[in-house]
Amino acid sequence: MSKKLADASTKPEKLIDIMGKLFKASISVNALIDMKFAENISSLRSHADKRVAAEAKQLRKHWKTRCIENNVKGENSNSEKRRSKGAPPPSIVEQLIEIGKVLVDDNASTEKTTSRKLSILQDLSSMKLTQDQVIESNIGKVISKLRKMSDEPKVSQAAKALRHKWARKFQT
C-alpha cells in the first residue's frame, strides 16, 4: 500500500481508497513511520488533485489527534521516544496546548470531528489537572471558545459542562 501511495502513476481514486482504509485502520505510530505511510501521506498533501490533497490532510490530522489522545490517556507514544532520544516526555501543559490546537484547528462540522471533539472533551474531564496547568496551557480559554463557536449542540454542552466542572473544582 505504501508503494502505491508513493507511485506518481497511481490514480487519484485509488489513492483516496487507500487513505480511507488507512483512516479506519488501527496502525501504531511505529508502523506509520517504519512503513513510510506518514512520509507518503505528508507528500500527498500537495497533490495536484484537490480531493487527494484534502483526504491526505484529513488523514494526517486524524493520526496527529490519535497520538495526542493516546498521550492524554497516559499511553506512551513511540514517536515521542524516537523524537526525543532521552529527552523527558512532554509535560501535561505541553500536551494540553497540543490538545487545544487540535480542538481549535478542527473547524469542520462533520460527524467524525464532532465525535473526536466529544472524545477529547471527555478525556479532559477525566484528567486530574491542577488549576495552574489549566491556566498555563490556556485550555480553559480554548474550551470557552469551542463552546461559543461550535455549531454542534453536543460539543457546546460538553465544553460548558467541563468549564463548570473546573470552575467548581478550582473555587477558592
Kindly summarize this structure in a few lines.
This protein is mainly α.
Structural summary, described in words:
The protein is mostly helical and 172 residues long. It has 2 domains: 2-84, Transcription Elongation Factor S-II, Chain A, CATH 1.20.930; 92-170, Conserved domain common to transcription factors TFIIS, elongin A, CRSP70 (Transcription Elongation Factor S-II, Chain A, Up-down Bundle), CATH 1.20.930. Helix content is 74%, strand content 0%. The radius of gyration is 18 Å and the shape is elongated.
SSE topology sketch:
Blueprint: H1 2-6, H2 12-24, H3 29-34, H4 37-44, H5 50-72, H6 78-84, H7 92-105, H8 111-126, H9 131-137, H10 139-149, H11 153-170
Derived from helix and strand composition plus strand pairing, the structural class reads mainly alpha
Overall form = elongated
Oligomer: single chain
Q: How many separate domains?
A: 2
Cα-based radius of gyration, to the nearest Å: 18 Å
The averaged pLDDT comes out at 79
Helix proportion of residues, in percent? over 70%
Provide the CATH topology of the largest domain.
Transcription Elongation Factor S-II, Chain A
Instruction: Report the order of strands and helices.
Output: HHHHHHHHHHH
Main sheet, how many strands, which sense, barrel?
none
